[in-house]
């Protein structure tokens, strides 16, 4: 059960390396929206308040849950996604960033839900790969004995998985709690380690892409303490810590490869409350490849600093549409930069911002106008899930024939449902939606913009390609060089 195998090759033992204890537990749900994030963030905050160094991890590609875990633990949260990264890379990422004191891994979807009927890439598969016990969150609203049926079904379908404890969520009162607890413990043999009462949803409010990010929550810092107290009052923290510590040691991480950097390129990264979706590994990969990162606010900065390339990640440009639209001087700077050949990589929110405009709530918000596209915000997701792409046309970053894996989650779409005639695209979409019409990856000059988010561990060629493109096209020095403060880095701990 505690063997440390790759999710891609479950029967291949890991190479022999020095072992070290890494206390760990996976927080999983019987279903999506079971209460995993409330429990995981509360546990991170509660154990941090006790003085433990807690390393948070998020299974899957989610940015927002990872941001709340980062806030709660006070250190970067790493995504572990065996589909995007591959099993070996996800395993090595865990080893590299794990804490010797406590590691909490929040799952996604239901415990057994993966890419197929066998549960490939599921939270259960990740828990087996990490040799980690599972603390299962089960929604108990309006049920008692039926809760046990769900837990028992997981035990029977995954007999090699150690479901070490259950936390009941949305419990109505003492009698309800007693009946549900007895049902689980007597009918499944799994101990109940916590009971979360109803009426706590307001702790982490949501909206169209999931939870409101901590960067936009007016009381994010205070909420960390509230989550710690709430979970600490309703979950047996000592027993959770005991099961985390009762795990087998794991290998030391492989030494990080040293990369000789002859010349550094300045890459501007849009980072503010409108642009928050960045994996730490993506920024670190750029730095290893030779980038000096310069952080830019699309909301506050009127000018671009002197940079050799630009990286616009995802986020919520639609919720900041009026302020982004009002910053017309930055729009002009972006248009001039692209026209001069500055390399640009934009993902989802970055693509939206670079478009001509966004139709939202009956209004047209004029954005940067770099891309000749009109977008509209829809009531339902227009793309949601993993993406597989084939590079079949010239572009600034990827060789023809390359196969890329990423993910998308967007409520916007191009008006008309696809890129209009005359707009070049570089990617054929084999899985997913992209820009519509089976295409993604809009190309203009040295700009590549797509709805697909990439992870540097799964696309290792991306960061070196962007740095090489930046070095090929340097902007002359500018008196406004360095005006954007690095303290806006999304990697900074709260």
Structure described in brief:
By secondary structure, the protein is of the alpha/beta class. The chain is built from 14 helices and 24 strands. The protein is 29% helix and 25% strand.
CATH-assigned fold name of the largest domain: Rossmann fold
- Strand percent estimate: 25-35%
Helix content bin: 25-40%
What is the domain tally?
Answer: 2
CATH class of the largest domain: Alpha Beta
Question: Could you say what the CATH architecture of the largest domain is?
Answer: 3-Layer(aba) Sandwich
Q: Poorly predicted ranges (pLDDT <50, ≥5 residues)?
A: 1-15, 475-494
List keywords for this structure.
2 domains; 25% strand; alpha/beta; 29% helix; 7-stranded parallel sheet; Rossmann fold; 494 residues; 9-stranded mixed sheet; disordered C terminus
